[in-house]
Amino acid sequence: MLAIDNLAKHFDAVEDRPLFATVSMRLAPGESVAIMGESGVGKSTLLNCIAGLEGVDGGRVQLGDRDLTALDEDAFARLRRRDFGFVFQAFHLLPHLTLAQNVALPLWLLDRDAVEADERARAMLARVGLDRRADDWPRHLSGGEMQRVAIARALVHAPRLVLCDEPTGNLDPGRALGVLELLFEGIRGAGAMGIMVTHSRQAAAFADRVLRLTSQGLVDAAEPS
Amino acid sequence: MPRLRVLGWRPDPILWHLFLASLWRRRLATLLSILAIALGVALGLAVQLIHAEALNEFGRGMRVLSGEADLQVVGPQAGFDEALYLRLAQRPEIAEASPLLEIEARLPGRERNLRILGVDLFRLARVTPTLLPVAAVEDETQATSGAETPALAAPTARQDFRLQPLQEGVLFLSPAAASQLGLTSGEQLAVQSGLGQAILTIAGQVPGAGRGQALAVMDIAAAQRTFGQIGRLSRIDLRLAPGVDREGLRRDLAVELPPGVSLHTPTEAQSELEGLSRAYRVNLTMLAAIALLTGAFLVFSAQWLAVVRRRQEFALVRALGLDRAGLRRGLLGEGALLGLVGGVVGVALAHGLTGLAFRLLGADLGAGYFRGLTPTLSFQPGLVLAYLGLGVAAGTAGAWLPAREATRMVTARGLRAGDEAEAYHARPRWGLALGLLTAAALLCGLPPLAGLPIGGYLAVLLLVVGAVLLLPGITPLVLRPLPGRSSTLWRLARARLAAAPGQAVVAGAGIVASVALAVSMAIMVNSFRVSLGAWLTQMLPAGLYVRAAPAGTSGYLDAAAVARLAALPGVQGIRPIRYETLRLGAGGEAMTLIARPIGAEAPLPLVAGSLEAGISYRHVDPAPHRFPPAWITEAVADRLGLGVGAPLDLPLGGRMQRFLVAGIWRDYARQQGAVAIEIATYRHLTGDEGVNDLGLFLDASTDPQALMPVIRDLLGKAVTEMILPGELRGMILAIFDRTFLVTYLMEAVAVMIGLFGISTSFAALATSRRKELGILRHLGLLRRQVAHLLALEAGLTALIGVLVGLVTGGAMALILIKVINPQSFHWSMEVQWPWGLLLLFSLAMILLSALAAALAGRQAMRQEAVLAVREDW
Lengths: 225, 873
Prior knowledge:
The complex is a heterodimer.
Chain A: E1 2-10, E2 18-27, E3 32-36, H1 43-51, E4 58-63, E5 66-67, H2 73-83, E6 84-87, H3 99-109, H4 114-127, H5 143-155, E7 161-165, H6 173-189, E8 193-197, H7 201-204, E9 209-214, E10 217-220
Parallel strand pairs in A: 3-8, 3-9, 6-7, 7-8
Antiparallel strand pairs in A: 1-2, 1-4, 4-5, 9-10
Helix pairs in contact in A: 3-4, 3-5, 4-5, 5-6
Chain B: H1 13-25, H2 27-66, E1 71-74, E2 80-81, H3 83-89, E3 94-106, E4 113-119, H4 121-127, E5 134-135, H5 136-145, H6 155-163, E6 170-173, H7 175-181, E7 188-193, E8 196-205, E9 215-219, H8 220-226, E10 232-233, E11 235-240, H9 246-254, E12 262-264, H10 266-309, H11 311-319, H12 324-361, H13 381-408, H14 411-414, H15 430-443, H16 454-479, H17 488-499, H18 501-539, E13 544-547, H19 559-566, E14 571-584, E15 589-596, E16 606-609, H20 612-616, E17 629-633, H21 634-640, E18 647-652, E19 655-665, E20 674-678, H22 679-686, E21 693-698, H23 704-715, E22 721-723, H24 725-739, H25 741-768, H26 770-778, H27 783-825, H28 835-860, H29 865-870
Parallel strand pairs in B: 4-9, 6-8, 15-20, 17-19
Antiparallel strand pairs in B: 1-11, 1-12, 2-10, 3-4, 3-11, 5-8, 6-9, 7-8, 13-21, 13-22, 14-15, 14-21, 16-19, 17-20, 18-19
Helix pairs in contact in B: 1-12, 2-10, 2-12, 2-13, 2-25, 5-6, 10-13, 10-18, 10-25, 12-13, 15-16, 16-18, 16-27, 17-18, 17-27, 18-25, 18-27, 25-28, 27-28
């Protein structure tokens, strides 16, 4: 269970200029949520705050029975390596690693045996339909293929929470659908929780719930803005 | 899956794939970093290896020469009365005493001198058996019988061995001397004695002397007769009776010894030489250390740029869970690997350089301490490990700041494109920089520690680091007065550097270090050369110099020869010079006594005191209770702690004579120190009329070249050297230039490293800024205009680096001239600024930097602008 209570973030930590305040949310294992909102409202910042990549100015984030806002930077890093998966708009594949090595990266960070990591990475690539290209380089892939590799990397270590920041923002609508199917199948299949930030209603529809971020916090997207 | 596996060990995939493998992907920068570290390590290790081997060889020689002696009685070059030997040999505490007469024999017609030891064969066998001569007949017997030592030789050979050395006119050569002279048994060798010659026959070898020692042994009585030293000894080797306390006996004997004669342990000579040569070695090592520091700056530049370029990558792995310690470890690992590989290459290079130096130059690095030794190269694991460690330390130190920058990055920001500019927002560190510079100034005031200018060296280090820290603060100060409303490119370049002064630090650090090194060496060498030239002019005023033999050897001009030379037509005046070696101070340090005319007409290059006392003093039959004046060199003043007006006791004519220090003079020829006294005083006190060098003052119409054959006819061809001051001056300056060749090489290396550094920095900058440059292309900038922009930025960066480097180099030169040189070598010199050279050098550095950056930028901008912009925008 992920519990977010009254999370607040100010512009450059200036208290009288809140980016968002009183953001609260509950997420159960196997459940996914899409967060929409206008540009600049702080959707990506909210994801960063949940992941501990940016500090918060108030509120609490709890994963299971752990208060994430109480963790220091390195403790958060160790938690992320075990419990978090990430999918970015810009894919962020490392150009000098093969596809299998890119996918194996989270397992390397967990000190898993290199052979086992390689096998699991290849199996994950098979799930996203790229097993034949496991030894290929990212530069030879299309945008859709790169995002599939990123999805494989996000799920390979069976995280509890997968954070996706505009995962289809760089893809055409046709490829976007395939990628989203893979992503949400993977999240649900692993029993993980998923949070996706997106501008696309089509993409948001893949999540179990759709919320909208406003300066007052998260509201149901169905409610009038 | 990582494929690398070394002896079953598989490296951590994160360390390998994310960090170490990145070095391979930026091969040029890696290669230059490795090269820079390798050169620093190679130069430093080669200096140490050459010196260590030379000292080893010298030590081996000392062991050969001193054998089983517990103590050695050592006298001045002129020797001491052999009656001392009889007194010492009768003392019950002394088991054996072996007398020696040591002659540095001049060999007419040959360039090298030969060290001849006159020995008492029967005493020698008990104290210094390694010097026992083996006659040629016995040699052959040994060869056929296969015996290894003289003791195992056949009886007939024993007979030869015992009797032959006692014969008159017989000489035994060590294997090295035989090989250098190209002589075998039965052949003859001419040696000079005074102005005369003696012919000696080679009767065999001194096999125990080893391969590195060029010396000869003959009977002591024969040596005394041959070289006119009857009744004189130069050394007595003592072996003590069992149970005798060496230090106690040393104290007892010291009071009984005649003036100028002192007691030493055999290892003290090696320590003395080690002490003398140490400053030279440490200075060269410090130069190599600065080269290594320049290498560390290059690693810093390369690593900083690599970190900037990989910000998104690091942000990703941080997001995926890599903690700060892991990131820091990886980046320091990259630096350490660069240092290790650079170190290994440097170690190999150092051994190659040392081997080459031994083959071409012997063991001498240019200062002359180890001239004549022929050491062999051996692997020294301790030294090698130490220098490998220094290489790793330099690489790790260079990677430290970039690693710190990477770990301080905010991960969320790093994931966004265009975050690179963050890395160049270096803030001025005025406080720290000024603190370091103040500390450097204070360190310059420290006295030498253990004879080494440690404060000066630390000051140089702090100065360079402080100067680099000043760069971000100085960059806007330099840019502000430059015109701002000119071309677009100029405005863009100026705006970029003003907004990202960190770029000047990254690209300019190597320039500052290398320019500072090159400038300081140029100023120091120029000052030294000009001062040496002025010193030579003052020390060589005569039109022609006649020399029986170099100082300290067996040749000299007697009074009759001097009178004949003075009477030659065209000779208006003469300046006779006599050299003697004295042992002064509590430790009996060897110093040179120079007896020559001193006065207004024959001045000394004084740095303190005056010549007045010499002019007013009556040197022959002086008034009672008046002491004659002596002028000491800066080295003597420093080593004995003497100032003008201080009393100085010199062992002359077999007793202690008191002098008063009338002045301190500058001497570039004798680092161990020299005392100059009026020759009339010397002759009055010693009765020695001999002359080593004679300066002839000629009238305007006399051609010195025409006079030379006349002198040769007068004194004999084989025994006379004649030198024109101009030639001697040229020769000395040529030796000077050869001595500083090592430093010129280091300068060239430093400059190359600096240029490579700026070129790789700008290539990497162009790559990391390709999106920004791509937008400029979108906005209509031509490809060549982008190259011009980079060239302008590089030119401005180099201008700032060169300006800071010039000021830093000037300050370093002052530390070298005013602190390090006087404390190391006891040399002072006038500061001479080679303005023209510095201006040319600065312009060349700025232009070459701009050119290198333009070329690097062109290479980096080959990618299409559209592609460059597409990635994340």
